[in-house]
Amino acid sequence: MYTDFDRCVRAVRSRDARFDGWFFTAVLTTRIYCRPSCPAVPPKDRNMSFYPSAAAAQQAGFRACKRCRPDASPGSPQWNERADLVARAMRLIGDGTVDREGVPGLAARLGYSTRQIERQLRAELGAGPLALARAQRAQTARLLVETSDLPMADAAFAAGFSSIRAFNETVREVFALTPTELRARAAHGRPPAAPGVLTLRLPFRAPLCPDNLFGHLAATAVPGVEEWRDGAYRRTLRLPYGHGAVALAPRPDHIACRLALTDQRDLAGAISRCRSLLDLDADPEAVDELLGADERLAPLVAKAPGRRVPRTVDPAEFAVRAVLGQQVSTAAARTLAARLVTAHGQPVRDPLGGTLTHLFPSAGELSGLDPAALAMPAGRRATVVGLVRALATGGLDLGVGSDRAEARARLAELPGMGPWTTGIIAMRALGDPDAFVPTDLGVRRAAASRGLPSTPGALTRHAAAWRPWRSYAVQYLWSADDHAVNHMPAH
């Protein structure tokens, strides 16, 4: 979009927050860059230039606006919608892969050469993987400086910088303030945080309907790993450098996030996973406009616009839970998962003062699972064992940078992995916005009640008009049923 000058100008002049994260406005006279919704008086057209990423604006010599904080805007919805190389690379960069493994590690995960990745990212985003990762490090540094009492040296290394000098120079260059000045500016009027706990605001594009999002997560919560407490969804997190716990609560204009991490270097990855869990980078206006054009779906869209797809912080965990939930009730699936957690999960302390006790076991920890210990039919036991083996050996990759089409094909090859399970995993673990489950009982029941075709084949043909947003259509169809997953939990 950033190449369409007139459209970008209109978005800036109207301060349209829907375009935050799609592009960045650079002001040639002041040498700052802003988000489209910046509340400052817009500059003259001839003094505006547009960039596809904050990294590109920074490379061109612009610093972040202190008023609208463009680095805190929602991420571009393209990276979740698309499945090409650039989108996969951006999801991995957001998860901290470049900071942990460097550009060669990013290339290895994607199966391309570093030169190919550099060329494609520069062509589309105006910056290579190192610059994009640097922009993310700057944002992480600001969060740590402003929301924690960490010593500056600890904040520098936790944000991913290799030296304190690089940390100081980057912060000054991007924000036109020293780290000390950033902290002093943010500390004014800020309530003290609990030791070791970071308090953040996760932005999103309005509208957002929290009912099915938090209702689904609370209704399917596995005891010990997840809970709903004091108006927030809380869970443990398995992260690259350590583990942590998070509490996420809906607010009118943001998601309140409280994070406790055993290693602060996991901050960027933890935020990325929480945003993915709640589908916060979605473009609800585009989704609702298309789905609302179907007269049978329109009443459901109009009743509660802005529905998101509840996803996951750990794709492998969700895949195992999806198989455990085959052909059983929500309560039974929770019980089966809780038994796995008790037997194989790593015990942890709840730093947020709740009842979280374990991390969900990794595929490696489940690789020695005795099938006889699973209280389920023999066929489903074999499916669990086959899935765990594929995940543990690397034969199946469900990570943020995985090829969705290849992952679905590998899933379909596993014994007992039918279209419903594959579709649910694609929707919630792989983050595919166009996954569809026409055989789902709730979808078929809702379709029939709305006058839509209720047989899987006919419904799939009708749903072709809903592409590429069929995952969201499923959420609206499910909302027609009076089930706990559709309602915000009681406080």
Q: Strand order within the widest sheet?
A: 5-9-8-7-6
- Terminus-to-terminus distance: 42 Å
- How many beta-strand segments? 9
How many whole angstroms does the radius of gyration measure?
Answer: 23 Å
* Count of discrete alpha- or pi-helical segments spanning 4 or more residues: 23
Helical amount: 40-55%
- Mean pLDDT, as a whole number? 93
Query: Which secondary-structure class do the elements indicate?
Result: alpha+beta
Q: Give the amount of beta strand, in percent.
A: 5-15%
Shape category: globular
Largest sheet: 5 strands, antiparallel
Residue stretches low in confidence (pLDDT < 50, at least 5 long) are none
Descriptors for this entry?
alpha+beta, 491 residues, four-stranded mixed sheet, 9% strand, five-stranded antiparallel sheet
Summarize the structure.
With 491 residues, the protein is of the alpha+beta class. The protein is built from 23 helices and nine strands.
Q: How would you describe this protein?
A:
- By secondary structure, the chain is an alpha+beta fold.
- The chain contains 23 helices and nine strands.
- It has helices spanning 5-13, 54-59, 78-81, 85-94, 97-110, 114-125, 129-147, 152-158, 164-175, 179-187, 210-219, 267-277, 284-291, 298-303, 315-324, 330-344, 363-366, 378-393, 404-413, 419-428, 441-449, 456-463, 470-478, and strands spanning 24-27, 32-34, 48-51, 63-64, 197-202, 226-229, 232-238, 243-250, 255-261.
- The strands form two sheets. It has a five-stranded antiparallel beta sheet. The protein has a four-stranded mixed beta sheet with strand order 3-1-2-4.
- Helix 15 (315-324) runs antiparallel to helix 20 (419-428).
- The protein is globular, with a radius of gyration of 23 Å.
- 48% of the residues are buried.
